[in-house]
Amino acid sequence: MMPAPMPPAQGWTRRLPVRLAVVLAIALFPVLVLSVYQATSLMNEARARSEAALMGATMRALGGETRLIEQAQGVAAVVSRSILPLIGHDAACVDKMRLVAEQLPYLSLAAYIPVSGLMTCSSSGRLFDYADDALFQQMIEKDEPSFIVNPGSPVSGTSILGIVHPVFDERGDKIGVVSLSIPHKALAEANDGPDTEVSRPLIIMTFDRTGSILTSSTGLEDAQDRLPADRALKALAAPISVSFSAKSRLGNDRIYSVVELVPNQVYALGSWPADGMQSLGPLADLPPVLFPTAMWLASLFVAYVAVQQLVIRHIRQLGRAIRRFAGGHRIVGHLNLDRASLEIRELADAFERMTETILHDEAQLEDTIHHKEVLLREVHHRVKNNLQLIASIINMQMRQARTPEAKGLMKGLQERVISLATIHRGLYQTSGLTDISANELLPDIVNQIVKLGSGPGRRFSVATDVDDIRLTPDQAVPLALLLTEAMTNALKYASNDTAAPWIKVELKRAEPMRAHLRISNSVAGPVTPPHGQDSTGLGSQLLGAFVQQLGGTIESGVKDDTYHVSVPFALRPLSEAEARHDRTTPPPNPEAA
Questions:
Q1: How do residues 516-531 score in pLDDT, each as one tens digit?
Q2: What are residue 254's DSSP bridge partners?
Q3: From the centroid of its chain, how far is CA 377?
Q4: pLDDT digits (tens, 9 = 90+) for 139-196
Q5: Are the C-beta atoms of residues 202 and 272 closer than 8 Å to each other?
Q6: Do residues 203 and 272 make contact, with C-beta atoms less than 8 angstroms apart?
């Protein structure tokens, strides 16, 4: 018996190309990780160099602003201590302020403003009331030096950075402030001011510890848009210089550096675009993982194409030939694997030698089977002829019999012999010699029995309903003999003074491996079942023996002038015929039954 074929592999994940791709991906994955790490390290190193360069550029750019602011702070501190004798003397106070403005020509205004807000002492000589000015209220509230930013000073007429220093009297009470106004333009135009080259536009902003912007190299109008989106200026006010990368409030990637200008008071924020990292060239705009991943995918593609061309396509060609041969296609042909590797060519050569051997063995086996089938058919044919000869001899002897009892016995024997002959005729006409079609065998037996039982004045209406059921010879023989005995009884009882006698034979499949034989006929008068427990006739003994050989049960009865015999039995698998073909079914032994 051949082993059962292996079930085909299901799912695309079990295919060789997919598995090879997975193996290659795993094999190349460490290279991807290393490449991503190196690319990330390179990007981080370049960004760190850019941040360090920005820090240096910011320090250099702030030199001029730092100098101006520190100088103005020192002058404001000196003036705040020397202004007391001049308070109340407006002319002398104005001269003092004008002298300060001459010493610091970048100032737009030098003034003393009392707590009342009425300015009478300034380098411009103008009178101005700051009492209702919000910036003045902030100035007057602080008891320490501070800064203010006024984008539109009413006296200077420009955007200024105010250096504010409180003035105290001899008792320590604050009586006013000294304010020195530095225009933002002057800060931006300092000799060592910010580098504003187009290739690397550097933006410098100054702010105080509260996070208020004091100056901006590009103007205060868009200064807020240049700030980092995720950090507040107040949080950046620290004595430690830092550099970092972040997105601006406009969504642009920028690099920032923070430097302390005046300890604990003024801080500077320098920034330039992140794409200024010129050391990376066009790769600076790409994520560090993109290029290694692209190289990894390209390597996978090249490896997959190579494996596809060198291995998989040849294996598929060989696999198609093997599947065709396994499916019964016996024309193999030449496999064009000249460009395949040595191992695959050796496998193809082995397959061709194997197919040649199998084809040769199959041809020999078919020839042997053909001879055996011819011999077996001849055996069945001769057995059939011999049985027919015996039936003819019985018929001749029956004609010479003088008593009805002898003729009846010889006729029953003749019918049984004819049934055996019909079975053997079905066997030698069958191509496989391992099974018999019930819908061909049983109607033939019925016709033979009816033909023998009919005669002048004895005409029967016969109907058959037989399913296409394949029977093994072990079951076909007892079933045919059982049908012969049952038909003999049916012919006997159907002819008892019945106007229109009829007989019906049915063999139906009840379940996949069960069948049901039923013979029914018309009756007129009482019927004694031929297979009853009290019966000792040969017919009942034969019926019992045949039912036992079938492995079924028998039941009979009369209902509504109809006599029936029912025999349900289990069908034997056709494979049992091969296991039993050497076993001869013994004829029924009436004495044992």
A1: 999 998 876 555 555 4
A2: 246, 273
A3: 59
A4: 888 888 888 877 777 777 777 788 899 999 888 888 899 999 888 777 767 655 444 4
A5: yes
A6: yes
